């Protein structure tokens, strides 16, 4: 269906590449690391990318057809990039599958807790989940409430974006710290 709608595979790839690039750019906003104290480590960057991938997937959750296919392609791309990153970090062929299973469990566990908090409009629960996942090494993380506010804002901003625009490769995340 995806190929029928857009005609050529190259167009499909440019659309998903554009969406994935926006998700990655949103996750790499320097403000998360410099002002909100997200760990600027491989695991910290995974957490921020996983959070933004969750936000995209959460936006697409009730969609069908082409939108659902795009969402699947992007989650597949996310896990392919995670696997590639593990290999770049020097993890050998024998260790990659085990770590991928662990990272997949981590991702899906996070998405469940983030979605639950967003759907209940429970900012304290969202902040607790973010702290537990992103900064488990810290007793306190004063900036987590600001990050929770960003996640709520991003969820609302993504929900307001037109499905056709997303299907054409355009999605916009808020600027961290702008509010």
TrEMBL record:
Top-level taxon of the source organism: Bacteria
Residues covered by the Ubiquinol-cytochrome c chaperone domain: 36-173
InterPro entries documented for this protein: Ubiq_cyt_c_chap (IPR021150), Ubiqinol_cyt_c_chaperone_CPB3 (IPR007129), Ubq_cyt-c_CBP3-rel (IPR014569)
Coiled-coil annotated spans: none
UniProt family annotation: Belongs to the CBP3 family. Belongs to the UPF0174 family.
Protein name: Cytochrome b pre-mRNA-processing protein 3
């Amino acid at each position: 269906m995806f190929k029928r709608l857009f005609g050529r595979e190259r167009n499909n790839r440019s659309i998903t590449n554009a969406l994935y690039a926006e998700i990655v750019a949103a996750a790499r906003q320097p403000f998360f690391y410099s002002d909100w104290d997200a760990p600027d480590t491989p695991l910290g960057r995974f957490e921020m990318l996983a959070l933004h991938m969750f936000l995209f997937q959460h936006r697409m959750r009730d969609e069908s057809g082409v939108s659902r296919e795009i969402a699947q392609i992007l989650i597949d791309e996310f896990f392919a990039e995670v696997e590639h990153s593990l290999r770049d970090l020097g993890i050998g062929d024998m260790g990659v599958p085990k770590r991928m299973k662990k990272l997949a469990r981590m991702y899906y566990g996070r998405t469940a807790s983030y979605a639950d908090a967003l759907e209940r409009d429970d900012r304290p629960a969202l902040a607790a989940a973010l702290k537990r996942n992103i900064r488990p090494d810290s007793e306190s993380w004063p900036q987590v409430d600001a990050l929770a506010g960003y996640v709520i804002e991003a969820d609302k901003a993504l929900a307001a974006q037109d499905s056709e625009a997303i299907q054409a490769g355009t999605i916009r995340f808020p600027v961290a710290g702008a509010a």
